[in-house]
Amino acid sequence: MNYKYDTSMARADKSCIVKGDKYRFTILTSRMIRMEYSEDGKFTDDATWLAINRNFDRPVFSVKEAENSLEIVTDDLHLYYDKRPFSSEGLSVHLCGDYTLHGSRWSYGDKVSNIGGTARTLDEADGAIPIEDGLMSFEGFSVIDDSKSEILLDDGFMAPRKEGLTDLYFFGYGHDFLSCLRDFFHLSGEVPMLPRYALGNWWSRYFKYSEKSYLELMDRFEQENIPISVAVIDMDWHITDVPKEYGSGWTGYTWNKDLFPDPKRFLADLHRRKMHTTLNVHPADGVRAFEDAYEKMALDMGKDPKTKEKIPFDAGDKKFMECYFEDLHHPLEDEGVDFWWIDWQQKNGSSVKGINTLKMLNHLHYLDNAARNSHPLTFSRFAGIGSHRYPIGFSGDTVATWASLKFQPYFTATATNAGYTWWSHDIGGHMNGDHDDERTLRWIQLGVFSPIMRLHSTSNIFLGKEPWKYAAYVQPSMKRFLQLRNELIPYLYTMNYLTHTKGMPLIMPMYYKNEDYAARYVPNEYYFGENIIVSPVTSPSSHVTRRSETMTWLPEGTYYDFFTGLVYSGGKKIKMYRDIESIPVLVKAGSIIPTAGDYMNCHVENPHEMVLNIYHGDSGEFTIYEDLPDDPEKKAFTKVEYIMGDGVSSSIRVSVSGDMDVIPKDRRYKIRLNGVYDAEEVAAKGLNKEDYTYSYDDKARCLEISIDAGKEGCSSFEIDINLTDSSIRQMDITNMLFETLQAACISYNLKQDIYFRYINRKSDVQFLAEVYSMDVMPELYGAITEFVTAF
Questions:
Q1: Which of 419, 530, 634, 671 could cross-link with 659 by S-S, CB 3.0 to 4.6 Å?
Q2: Across the strands, what pairs with 255?
Q3: 642-645 long-range contacts, Cβ below 8 Å, gap at least 24?
């Protein structure tokens, strides 16, 4: 087996190394130092699980050395070492800059107050679980121990590290978390590009489907106008009822022909429905004699198939792993399987000491898939820092409770601290719990604004996540959010590209871009891309207001609610109240969010109608990335700029560069300029008058411009707009108050009293004081206060 894994960049520049008989320091950047100690003076320059590229641009540093001391000074760090075995007295690093009350200093062996990273699995989690350390600390530094991680060989296999050595990486990036993450990706490997289809909706369930029932279900989704991009087939695709002598039926590689009589036809039918397919595989039990592939695999392994002896799973055996792919997986891929859900059963599965089985599976499955696909994919559990190279993460079988839902936004955002940016959760909860229509809806809403949107549940006949199985009052919102997920793919795919090329993760904790202490204390709030902030709803609605409350902190600036259009001034914490139609999703003024006009097809092709959602109040730009799924080397970049002038004038510029074959020739644009007054004039450069139209939506405070740019010479154009007023136009607060009171479960007289007090108010402050004195329920007072004081 030879996958030709590239380890050529593992060796650092010699000029960056300071070395003694038993120690070695490699100054990788001015803020990252590798620290090694070995009694025999032997060190590794091989690629390891953590570090595959130590070749950085040489930083500026100085060395001061005496007989029993060594100092290394960079622009950001000062290292002190006594040239003895590493100890708390003999090795320390000081940061230039104070990030704690007593300065930022690390000594060997210190416990770092780490912010946290992620965890291997959420299996059986019912609420919060402990998480492993990540790369970030508010103290300004962290240390990652690479002493025991595997060596990655250039043939794609792994080897154990030599025992008894110390191999540490010191990250001293202060609060510059994004730079820390980008340099980590340089060291540990870039995050791969996901295929476009992976960003749509996944359907998954541990359930005994048949070919007929599964396809009928997919047809029902299509009839309901709910797009599904990935069809996940859990373990019942293979034979599970096996003779007693073979043990359990968890592991299998042979289709259950009673359920799937013609697997190739079944997979082709899914592909015709514009879906990609993954099958679940539990490889721990090896290969047994009832499998169709047993005889060939036994012969290839040099065993007599007549003995019917089990072929044990062994990730440390190169020959076994070669047959594992060639005899078990490739024939199924030839039938139409696109990638694999690796559901390893947490057992020791390697004959080589020091080889982690899950790491080996993730590594080799990804390399194997890369041999067949331009955007390779695996679906498996987190195997420690460095796992970002093998997306996507399967987080495990959570309990279906509010506590589990409440933990997931924090868990997902904090995982970025470990470089793990593509988690896929069991949206709605996997098992146990109880039926709760609102909670399932809120989980779906979170899923739409998560890295991967995968509906999943166990085989309990009442636990399916089909929207039509839930109460009528939540169904429309469930469907609309699942449609929205596909509409967001142009934005998501661009962020996918920026994660891959720039180390800019889709999900970021609020403290990544804000030094304000408040950013540390909103654990369930996060950035969704560069300019969107999401504050998911993770608690049930009030019986009084029919709304749920979230505590949301907004940095300085002006923000629009993506759903309601309400405009907020930032620099404060705000209690936000949402009915079942939405969650707080805040977009900064000047932002441009591209979405697709056709939500049913944009997971497989670039949209024929591109919607440009622009938020008035500041200038801004966004460059949309697109490529061809079957030829990703063909790329196109659509730069969209919004330029606010000094007065009522503003301009929108659209220019396309790159390979024009990527852009559909009949592409149309719909521009939605939010938060504006009506336009006196709209004129276009680069377009004929008949190529564009515009209208004003008074209720939404939105100017809509429709453009047919699918004509020769229309790849670039500019729209000049003269508004009747250049200021931001707030939504109708009176109407919002009326709708809030209409839904509230309070006396009719109290509703009317509050409403007319607002109509006749002398000031907002006076009105709120009067309502407060009326002793209304706190949640109703909070909901009224939110939009009255928003901007």
A1: 634
A2: 238
A3: 642/590, 642/592, 642/614, 642/616, 642/673, 643/619, 644/616, 644/617, 644/618, 644/619, 644/726, 645/726
Cβ count near 745 (within 10 Å): 11
Per-position DSSP letters for 215-262, written without gaps between them = HHHHHHHHHTT----EEEE-GGGB-----GGG--SSS--SB-TTT-S-
Q: How far apart are CA 713 and CA 151, in angstroms?
A: 54
Beta-ladder partners of 707: 669, 692
Q: Identify the CA nearest to 500 among candidates 202, 52, 182.
A: 182
Residue 646 pLDDT level (bands cut at 50, 70, 90): confident
Q: How confident is the model over 101-151, as pLDDT tens digits?
A: 566 899 999 988 899 999 999 999 999 999 999 999 999 999 999 999 999
Q: Quick check: 112 and 142 in contact, CB under 8 A?
A: yes
For residue 353, give the H/E element and its range: none
Positive or negative, the CA dihedral 672, 675, 680, 684 is negative
* Token pair 């008074």 in the structure block, residue: 698
Amino acid at 403: A
Claim: this prediction has a pTM higher than 0.85: yes
Q: How far from the centroid of its chain's Cα atoms is residue 314's Cα? A: 32
719: Cβ contacts below 8 Å, ≥ 6 apart: 651, 652, 653, 671, 682, 683, 684, 685, 692, 705, 707
**Element of type H or E holding 632:** strand 631-644
For the chain, how many residues are written?
A: 791
- Return the residue matching tokens 């644009």: 669
Helical segments of 273-352, H only: 294-300, 318-323, 330-335
pLDDT (tens digit, 9 = 90+) per residue, 545-582?
A: 999 999 999 999 999 999 999 999 999 999 999 999 99
